[in-house]
UniProtKB/TrEMBL annotation:
This is Uncharacterized protein. The chain crosses the membrane at residues 13-31, 143-162, 182-202. Residues 274-305 are annotated as: Disordered. It comes from Vitrella brassicaformis (strain CCMP3155). Keywords: Membrane, Transmembrane, Transmembrane helix.
Length: 305
């Protein structure tokens, strides 16, 4: 009984954990703008303005540091940024922002953003097939992550809100948790596989392998650094292991339930076999009437007289 109570408490903990994780995964993975971040410092007459490119699931973002009174100063418009380092870039929207820091309180940047579909169309109109292919791959990678991330979340929600409460209710009533526990194990395993496959596909289409191409293409830049953003790290190295641990716990629970049911079935079969055994039979007149023995003794005594 205590073991069932302990397992029930563990189930409640897992349910709360999975719900929080599911919500966090949805917002971090599907809405975080920085799946891939490329930060570089452009060189122009010994000035090093910071240039950061961020690749999300839907949008490309470019941030150019505005260094005043230098030959590397960029001009920030409403839909474009013009820099001596890379020329003119067209975007859906640009604006000047202040990046406050202790080292430079007056630090200003020109932040521009555009969806991949728009960037792809602009590249096609310019006849830049290489850039068009890159934007197409990045857009496809975003769609893949949205699809696989949404499916992962749906499977986790189904297991958390539909199956685990039913399993816990059956445990409290002392009933078998089959087949809900088995279905939950399958769904958790499928969620872990979907999450891992989605991350690998995103990495293949537009992940960190793209960083080398981006760094090599910027010959005017110095000290380039390319790293995977927080969402990319979560999608590749955090989320799948957590789901794998959850599914492993569920499979161990199913295995323990099957072992317990087999032991219980064997005990019931043994008890039934003992009840069906015939009663032991008596030998001779051991079960006769004691009065008959007395009468026989008196008759034998009379004969001797």
């Amino acid at each position: 009984m205590c073991g069932l109570c302990y397992a029930h408490e563990v189930y409640h903990f897992v349910a709360r954990f999975v719900v929080c994780f599911c919500i966090g995964y949805f917002f971090i993975t599907l809405f975080e703008p920085s799946f891939l971040s490329l930060t570089q410092y452009g060189t122009r007459d010994y000035f090093y303005p910071e240039i950061t490119e961020t690749y999300g699931l839907q949008f490309y973002r470019l941030s150019v540091e505005l260094v005043p009174l230098t030959n590397a100063t960029a001009t920030c418009g409403d839909t474009s940024v013009d820099s001596p380092l890379f020329g003119r870039g067209e975007f859906k929207g640009c604006k000047v922002t202040h990046h406050q820091s202790a080292e430079d309180p007056g630090d200003r940047h020109c932040d521009c953003v555009a969806p991949y579909g728009w960037m792809h169309q602009q590249s096609v109109e310019r006849g830049d097939t290489e850039a068009a292919a890159m934007w197409r791959d990045l857009r496809a990678a975003g769609v893949v992550m949205y699809v696989f991330g949404s499916l992962t979340m749906v499977l986790v929600v189904l297991s958390t809100f539909w199956l685990l409460p039913d399993v816990a209710s059956k445990m409290r009533r002392g009933r078998s948790t089959h087949p809900q526990d088995l279905i939950a194990a399958v769904l958790f395993t499928a969620a872990a596989v979907l999450c891992l496959v989605g991350g690998l596909l995103w990495r293949s289409l537009g992940g960190s392998a793209r960083c080398a191409d981006l760094v090599d293409a910027r010959v005017l830049f110095a000290a380039p650094t390319c790293e995977m953003g927080r969402s990319g790290i979560d999608a590749m190295f955090v989320t799948p292991p957590l789901l794998a641990v959850t599914s492993l716990f569920q499979w161990l629970f199913v295995q323990d339930r099957v072992r317990h049911e087999r032991w219980k079935a064997a005990r019931i079969a043994q008890l039934q076999a003992n009840q069906n055994q015939p009663a032991p039979q008596t030998v001779g007149n051991a079960a006769g009437n004691p009065q008959d023995d007395v009468d026989d003794a008196e008759t034998a005594a009379g004969s001797n007289v």
